[in-house]
Structures are given as C-alpha cells and as structure tokens.
Amino acid sequence: METTVQAAPHPSRDAWTSHLRSHGRRVTKQRLAVLDAVSAVPHATAEDTVQQVRSVLPNMSVQSVYVVLADLAAIGMVSKFEPPGSPARYEIRTGDNHHHAYCVRCGVVQDVPCAVGHAPCLTPSQDHGFELLAAEVVYRGVCPRCQEELAASATEAR
Ligand SMILES: [Zn+2]
Ligand SMILES: [Zn+2]
Fold this sequence. Notes:
The chain is of the alpha+beta class. Helix content is 39%, strand content 15%. The protein has one domain (13-157): Winged helix-like DNA-binding domain superfamily/Winged helix DNA-binding domain (Arc Repressor Mutant, subunit A, Orthogonal Bundle), CATH 1.10.10.10. It has helices spanning 11-22, 29-40, 46-56, 62-74, 144-157, and strands at 44-45, 78-81, 89-92, 99-103, 109-112, 138-141. It has a three-stranded antiparallel sheet with strand order 1-3-2. The protein has a three-stranded mixed sheet with strand order 5-4-6, with no helix packed on it. Helix 2 packs across helix 3. The site of one zinc ion has 7 residues, from helix 5.
C-alpha cells in the first residue's frame, strides 16, 4: 500500500511535513490523520484520538494509532499531559510553555498561558545544581459548568 501523500495546501500541514522530514519520518496519511485529530481536539485522550482517526481512516488499527502518537510525542510534534488520576491527554506541541487547568469533577482541561512566557516559569527555592528546562504546572480546580451544577444540586437538596 502506498501511503506517502502530497502535502495539501494546509498551513499546519506544511509545517508538519517539514517537521516530519527533519526527523527522517515519511509523510504518511496515517501520521497526518493523527496530527489532524490531535489538532482538531486538543487535550484528547489516546482513545478519543483513535476514534477520531478511525472515522477518517477506518482501516488503521488501534495499535498503529498508539504507535504513531507515541512516535510523534518522541519527536516533539505532540505533547503529552497527564492530569492526576486521569488518562494522558495529547495536543499539538506549541512550544509556548503553556500550562493546564484541570477540573477534578468532570476532567475538562483548559490551557493557561505561562505566567512568564518561557520555561521554566517557576524559580525553585533550591535547584540542586540542575540546569532547569521546564516546570510543569497543573492547576486543579472545579470548572464553571461544574460549579453551576454543584450550586444547582445544592439548591435542589434544600
Ligand atoms: Zn468540570
Ligand atoms: Zn494545552
């Protein structure tokens, strides 16, 4: 099966194509479909990404989607974020050192711009001699929709 495709006129696809090539990866429709899926649904779980990809490429196996996702993460095209106690989420790597707010009730994830704009945005009181690369910040909380639902159920209970 011939899987190499021509780069479509798609601004991010041009960047993806050159990024893939610079890492010695062939530009395949499978890799592009995974990148499309992750960019369409930021912070999706691997399972969500599998469903999204298979709606476009029904013959692509679940295993191959996982393999491509892991490889894209390894070459820095996709970043992986692991909320505490929840499956890992994936997004297109933006390089903006943004952080995440995670709802402990429904699991929704929102991007939070980095407070300083570059990594590491936190200066530790003790760096143990490390040359620090990044600080991963996760803000845990309750999203507005859950706050509303909680307020509504509190009113009902009264
Ligand atoms: Zn929520
Ligand atoms: Zn994000």
